[in-house]
Amino acid sequence: MGVKYCLLRLLPFAALVMLECVDTGLTTISKAAMSKGMSHFVFVVYSNALATVMMFLFSFFFNRTKRPPLTYSLLCKFFLLSLVGITMMQNCVFTGVNYSSPTLASAIGQLFPAFTFLLAVMFRMEKLDLRSSRSQIKILGTLVSISGAMIIIFYEGPPIGVTTLPSHPEPVLTAKNSWVIGGLFFATASLSLSVFTIFQAAILRGYPSEMTIVSFYCLFGTIQCAIVALIAEKNPNAWKLKPDIELVSVIYSAVFGNVVTYSVATWCIHKKGPVFVAMFKPLGIAIAAFLSVIFLGDTLHVGSIIGAIIIVAGFYGVMWAQSKEEEQIEAKEISEQQSTPLLGSRTNV
């Protein structure tokens, strides 16, 4: 019984570590496909379309008897959820990957906890007392994380482990501009992901069916992304999938990037809440750097290392203050539960 309980408690931790590996692998393999000329707009449409088919099949066989009734209001919520979490977020991510690298994607992705905290405060899902030292640490940590992201975007710095200097200044300027553009797209994606997580947590309170939610927002996301791709992608040949890294990246994105990631993340949000899910983002920096250097031949830069350290420091400051507040709330609840029977026994006497 004790071993089973421990395993159940560790399951969300293991699941989110796996998701960070899957997410970083997705940006790495998609970068490889886009380097071959694949359109990122088409990529998003195909991966979500395949994920939609898979999710509705799973939902039909495993969830049709457990699914709560659907309403028009719920479908509208799913539509908005897909607009933020798929159409905006995924297109921004893969556009940013096309301009820069998976390492930058993972580094800027550390803004996700900071944005989530700010939105939670705005929507009163998180209590904030400016007179409390813990609340002050939360605010300071959030500002530190945002400043770290700004360093990564606007200061690339010299490469680590490379001694040869480029001889042509114009390509360097172009690369610098691409780095900044990519960073801004990733920052927008992090904000979209935060809105998506907060919104999804609110929906799960009234409709606790993870598989149904994932199925419908994959469907709506496919329709929305197809409209965007038809407008943005003028070349009809871009819709032809080559049986190489392009096909592999679409299948990987559909299976792991959409079905596995969305299902597991939705389950973890339902069980542990959005803040718990955000805690695991910093793990992606090391994974992304490792995969990018090995598989894509990318070079680490000083700006990325400095910015990532600052972001993680600010983030864990917020998490430390959050954990202390939760401990205080739990201690207060325990003391109230212990004092209630004593009061009741005295009145009976």
- Mean pLDDT score, rounded? 76
Low-confidence spans: 163-173
Structural class: mainly alpha
Compressed to H and E, one letter per element, the order equals HHHHHHHHHHHH
Biggest beta sheet attributes:
none
What form results from the Cα inertia axes?
globular
Beta-strand percent range = under 5%
Give the CA-CA distance, first to last residue.
Answer: 39 Å
Oligomer: single chain
| SS field, number of helical segments | 12
Helix content: over 70%
Explained architecture:
Helix 1 packs across helix 11. The chain has a domain at 12-127 and 163-277. 44% of the residues are buried. The chain is an all-alpha fold. The chain contains 12 helices and no strands.
